Amino acid sequence: xxxxxxxxxxGRLDVTLxxxxxxxxxxxxxxxxxxxxxxxxxxxxxxxxLSKLDTRHLYHRTKPPSCSLANESLEHHxxxxxxxTCARAAGFxxxxxxxxxxxxxxxxxxxxxxxxxxxxxxxxxxSPITVEDITARTGLYERDGVRVCWFGFRPxxxxxxxPTLLVQAPEERGQGWRVTAGLARLxxxxxxxxxxxxxxxxxxxxxxxxxxxxxxxxxxxRKVTEEGGWGEWAQGWTRSWNDGWRLWWTSPTYAALDxxxxxxxxxxxxxxxxxxxxxxxxxxxxxxxxARKKEAKDRAYAAFWSRTGLNQQQWRYFRAIAxxxxxxxxxxxxxxxxxxxxxxxxxxxxxxxxxxxxxxVACPDPSRLRAWAEDVALLVPSHLDLDTLAGRAWAPFQVxxxxxxxxxxxxxxVLPASVRP
Length: 421
Known about the structure:
- It contains seven helices and 22 strands.
- By secondary structure, it is α+β, with helices and mostly antiparallel strands.
- Keywords: Plasmid.
């Protein structure tokens, strides 16, 4: 079944129009001898007739196997007829089977602007086609300045890769065609897309008048989870498991709102990234400083053990003797350059044990004694160290000898050489 034909003098005929689109009547071609009509696609002879439901159409006396118009299915025929009817009901001039001058495309329904220029192609796509092919065909329309929408009955691999509406024919008399998927609105609390149920006639009118536009979502509302694919997300409202559905029709207001949400999310991501980078730099600086301090601490310990000649076992005995001798809860710090590379000794006190009081310095470098040596006890492991400190004294020093090898404990107040007897 087809709806258009060519006449040598009258031009293109459209049997869906009362004047056949060329100022002629149905009666002039139906059962009239001598009227030669040809198929716009294959050029074969066609004839006018009425179906059992009194629907006008044209048919090939001999159906050519390669002519798509001659082999058009009833479903395709009815959908195409509904699309042209919807476009005309919206107040637009619409024609069937309009081909490009180059022959690179032929629209099922071509809708025209008031000035006669092509506005939009409405394509009933019911036969199998690849995503690549339908995308290429859409590109040809766009190249020629023609918008396009593809209509189908059920999910296909190409659905949603190009501007698409899925539709449903009436199940009973009196019902109209409906859009089943492809229309959406955007909510902002939270940001999410939801389906819009509409009559096909309304949807066609909206797209022709610019009230809806094809839109690819930009904000995070486009998917349920970061892990979930488009199929998992889109099927929740498009009634399709097609994981290629990335484009649907919505109001320009919603498209603009989605773009604004996307900008806000991009700015939020930028801020988060900047904060993360700042935090990463801070962490890197802290880690570098920790590494520097550890390296300095390791060097200080290595220098301490080398200078004092003590090993770990001797140091443990030295500490035990100090704790026993002073009968205090002592804490020995790391070698500290502020105390002549000796190890500061603190008394731990306070109700929670967090109050530390400096009471002495263990094994300081005699050549690096400063004023602090006059105020705290100096702890050394041998009398030889005591003699060395005595030789450096410029004021009275309180020195404790805690010998880890013998367990000897001794204390002596060392005076400067100038005041010794």
